[in-house]
Amino acid sequence: MLSYRHSFHAGNHADVLKHTVQSLIIESLKEKEKPFLYLDTHAGAGRYQLASPQAERTGEYLDGIARVWQQEDLPAELAPYISAVRAVNRSGQLRYYPGSPLIAGHLLRPQDTLQLTELHPSDYPLLRGEFQKDARATVTRGDGFIQLKAKLPPVSRRGLVLIDPPYEMKTDYQDVVKGISEGYKRFATGVYALWYPVVLRQQIKRMIHALEETGIRRIMQIELAVRPDSDQRGMTASGMIVINPPWKLEQQMTSVLPWLHKTLVPEGYGHATVSWIVPE
What we know:
This protein is an alpha/beta fold. The protein has a single domain (6-278), classed as Rossmann fold (3-Layer(aba) Sandwich), CATH 3.40.50.150. The chain has ten helices and ten strands. It catalyses: adenosine(2030) in 23S rRNA + S-adenosyl-L-methionine = N(6)-methyladenosine(2030) in 23S rRNA + S-adenosyl-L-homocysteine + H(+). Keywords: Methyltransferase, RNA-binding, rRNA processing, S-adenosyl-L-methionine, Transferase. Belongs to the RlmJ family. One of its GO terms (cellular component) is cytosol.
C-alpha cells in the first residue's frame, strides 16, 4: 500500500519510547570495543521537520518529544537519546526530529556499520541523501523483512536489528514474527528490537503468542500507554519487544519509564510496564 508516512507522527509518544530503548541498547553495545551492525528494516526518511504541514496537521510531537525537550530534570537514561535530538537542532529550538537511522548514526562509532532499508518512493531518496557522505552506512530501497535473510549474520557477530513496520497491513503483525524467526536462525546472538502499536489489543496478544511459539528465549516487553485500551480507532499505547536485551536494559527502563509516563501523560491515564514474555 505504501500510504503510511511517518512525518505525520514523528516525535510522538511512541517515538519517544522507541528511541529511548534504541539508544540504550546502542550504548550497551558500545561498551565493548568490537564493532557491531545496526540494521533498520523500515528506516523512514531519517529526518522530520516539525513545522511541516504533515507534522503540524496532527501535532503529535507536542505531546511527545516537545514535553520531554522542555524538562530540566532529564533522567540520565535519556541522555543518549536527547543528545541525538539536539544534534539535529543546533539552534536550540525544536525544529527537527531524528528518526531511528539518524539516532543510530549519531550514536554509532567509526568502526560500526549501518544497514538501512526503506521501500517508500518518497522517503527512500530523503534517507539516501541524509547518509550519502557517511561511509559507515548502506542505504537500500526494498522490503526490510528480506534484509533479515540477506544481511544476517554480520561479520562481527554483534548487532542490533530494529524492526518497526507501519502496520498499515494486518499481515505486518505476522510478518514481524516470521522476520524475527528468520533472522534469529541466522543470528541468534543479536539484539532484536520490535516496535508495535496498540490499536486493537487482540492483535498484540496474537503476535506475542506467535513469538512464544517460535521457541526463542529472553524476550522482554516494554509498553507505554497514554489511554486505556479501546475498540475505537487510534493508537492507545505502543511498546518495544526486545530479544536478547542487554543486561542493564530492564533496570534502566524500570527506572525511566515512570518518569516518561508522568511527563508524557500528566493526567495519569494508561500504564507503563516492563515485563518478560519469555525469560532466560
